[in-house]
Amino acid sequence: MSTQDALLKQVSIKAEDSILVATFEVDGDIPGSGAYVVGLVAASPDYSSQRRLGIEFMNGHPIAFYSFNHEQSTEENYDLSGVTHSANSITGNFPLAAINGLDKAHVMTAFSEADGREFQSGVPVEESL
Which of 15, 44, 46, 79 is buried most, with the most CB atoms less than 10 Å from its CB? Predict the structure, then answer.
């Protein structure tokens, strides 16, 4: 995969009842081969409390949908039915509880990884919580 492929161009989140809807717009297509991960890092302003929410693809198909709480060292995996995608858009319907415990002064950015290496980090997230 070249660095021109699958760059995150826009990421947004919104709350719908008890669901955190995260939409990742990709400049290019979701890679059809290899591993590709998109996700969110949500943290307290001092990063002492962090959550990592992710969607992992293998050969163009979602294979994992999860959240990880760094403070508690726990990972929760969700049913893949919460993920929809097209060639250049990925939507994950995470439980809103995945970011419980973070106050309104939190920090949130998006990331992507390709074949086990960091591809992008610190991508701004448009929030409507």
Answer: 44
Residues for the chain: how many in total? 129
Is beta strand 107-114 parallel, antiparallel or unpaired with respect to 7-16?
unpaired
Look up the pTM and report it. Answer: 0.91
Q: pLDDT tens digits for 40-73?
A: 999 999 988 999 999 999 999 999 999 999 888 8
Which of 37, 95, 105, 35 shows the shortest CA–CA distance to 69? 95
Q: Is 28 helix (H, G, I), strand (E, B) or coil?
A: coil
What are the strands, taking DSSP E only, across 1-129? 7-16, 19-27, 35-43, 50-58, 61-69, 74-77, 83-85, 89-95, 107-114, 117-124, 126-128
